[in-house]
């Protein structure tokens, strides 16, 4: 079967690359993915899948029924882009200001479409069904929860396991990686520092919020030393509009990564005390808004074994890595994993000897060379889970 799989993927790759680049050029934000959903739905229909549009507003579910009875596996991909101004010079660069596919969702979607194509050609050997879940609003907007509430897990045929694939510039091209299954909590915060603006020539009459923000930022960095395996990242700071005006306020936004909910409460309390102490010492006021985020998924060991089994059957053991630690960032596969077993597979995108471009960089672009390995691992995992292994022919 491997020879057939590789040749069929090679046959469909040019079309998938074209579709992926078209999606990249026309990104859409959370719950606005109308065009993206239409492209995916139209392609699913050409393959003969049962298609349900408008799930959780802009989500799509495509159902591929195998010819033989069996279980139902879900393969999930994301539709949304992120609010970043693209700075690359690719011919398929984003045509929309301040919006781009900087997290590989265009590639994940293309992999799902390609997997649907390949499995549709092999459905006479497929024991069970594959439900393709194309989720809106992955980037911190709760799209997974909205789809679950819409019934994607329970609707017939009921999903019994779920696979997620996410591009990873840190993993070499042609390899896949699994995490150690631990959950990392990723929260966000917003700090509003209120001072009293005025003229720089009369500093005795103002309470400078920019000075206060500098003290707060230094203090926040000290929190990582007090809480093991935590990280505080500042992403935006906004305040002021002219060199001769001290502003009234400054706003700071950022993220925190921690390993346990117990640490979350303690770290949040320490942050609020630190900010209040600094601002109060200089006569300022503050407000800290803290939002608990989505943990990285805790993978099911048995299902992760299906990924390993499929990868080894295709490529041998040398192409599979175990990170040995939790993957950083957020991942909305987690809400699905609270209800069904599954795992996320990190797909390598960086060629040997090349410098990796990080996710959420304005210069990021999904590597089209990773499409084939992504489809291969998705198809192999599907047959491992549903059929017990890849057919010999």
UniProtKB/TrEMBL annotation:
Entry's InterPro entries? Amidohydrolase, Bact_exopeptidase_dim_dom, Peptidase_M20, Peptidase_M20_dimer
Q: Which cofactor does it need?
A: Mn(2+)
Q: Which GO terms describe its molecular function?
A: hydrolase activity; metal ion binding
Q: So where does Mn(2+) get bound?
A: 103, 105, 139, 166, 360
Keywords from the named record = Hydrolase, Manganese, Metal-binding
Instruction: Report the transmembrane regions from the record.
Output: none
Q: Which residues form the Peptidase M20 dimerisation domain?
A: 188-276
Superkingdom classification of source: Bacteria
What the record notes about the co-factor is: The Mn(2+) ion enhances activity.
Q: What PANTHER family does the annotation carry?
A: METALLOPEPTIDASE, PUTATIVE (AFU_ORTHOLOGUE AFUA_6G09600)-RELATED, PEPTIDASE M20 FAMILY MEMBER
The protein's matches in NCBIfam families, at most eight in alphabetical order, are given as: amidohydrolases
Name of the protein in its database record: Amidohydrolase
């Amino acid at each position: 079967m491997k020879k057939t799989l590789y040749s069929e993927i090679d046959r469909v790759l040019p079309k998938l690359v074209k579709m992926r680049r078209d999606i990249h050029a026309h990104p859409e934000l959370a719950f606005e993915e109308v065009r993206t959903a239409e492209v995916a739905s139209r392609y699913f229909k050409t393959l003969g899948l049962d298609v349900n549009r408008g799930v959780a507003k802009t989500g799509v579910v495509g159902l591929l029924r195998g010819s033989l009875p069996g279980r139902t596996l879900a393969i999930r991909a994301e539709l949304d882009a992120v609010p970043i101004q693209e700075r690359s010079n690719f011919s398929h660069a984003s045509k929309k200001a301040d919006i781009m596919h900087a997290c590989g969702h265009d590639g994940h979607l293309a992999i799902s479409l390609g997997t649907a194509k390949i499995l549709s050609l092999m459905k006479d050997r497929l024991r069970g069904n594959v439900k393709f879940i194309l989720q809106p609003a992955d980037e911190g907007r709760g799209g997974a929860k909205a789809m679950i509430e819409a019934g994607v897990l329970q609707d017939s045929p009921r999903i019994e396991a779920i696979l997620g694939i996410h591009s990873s510039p840190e993993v070499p091209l042609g390899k896949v990686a699994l995490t150690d299954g631990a959950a990392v909590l990723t929260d966000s915060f917003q700090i509003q520092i209120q001072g009293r603006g005025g003229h720089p020539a009369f500093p005795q009459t103002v309470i400078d919020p920019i000075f206060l923000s500098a003290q707060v930022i230094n203090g926040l960095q000290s929190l990582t030393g007090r809480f093991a395996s935590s990280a505080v990242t500042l992403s935006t700071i906004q305040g002021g509009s002219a060199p001769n005006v001290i502003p009234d306020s400054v706003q700071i936004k950022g993220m925190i990564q921690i390993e346990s909910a117990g640490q979350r409460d303690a770290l949040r309390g320490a942050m609020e005390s630190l900010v209040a102490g600094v601002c109060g010492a200089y006569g300022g006021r503050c407000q800290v808004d803290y939002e608990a985020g989505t943990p990285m998924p805790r993978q099911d060991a048995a299902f992760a074994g299906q990924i390993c089994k499929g990868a080894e059957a295709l490529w041998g053991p040398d192409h599979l890595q175990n990170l040995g630690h939790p993957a950083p960032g957020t991942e909305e596969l987690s809400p699905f994993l609270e209800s069904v077993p599954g795992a996320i597979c990190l797909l390598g995108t960086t060629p040997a000897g090349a410098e990796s471009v990080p996710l959420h960089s304005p210069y990021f672009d999904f590597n089209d060379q990773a499409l084939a390995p992504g489809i291969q691992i998705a198809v192999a995992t599907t047959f491992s889970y549903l059929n017990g292994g890849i057919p010999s022919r």
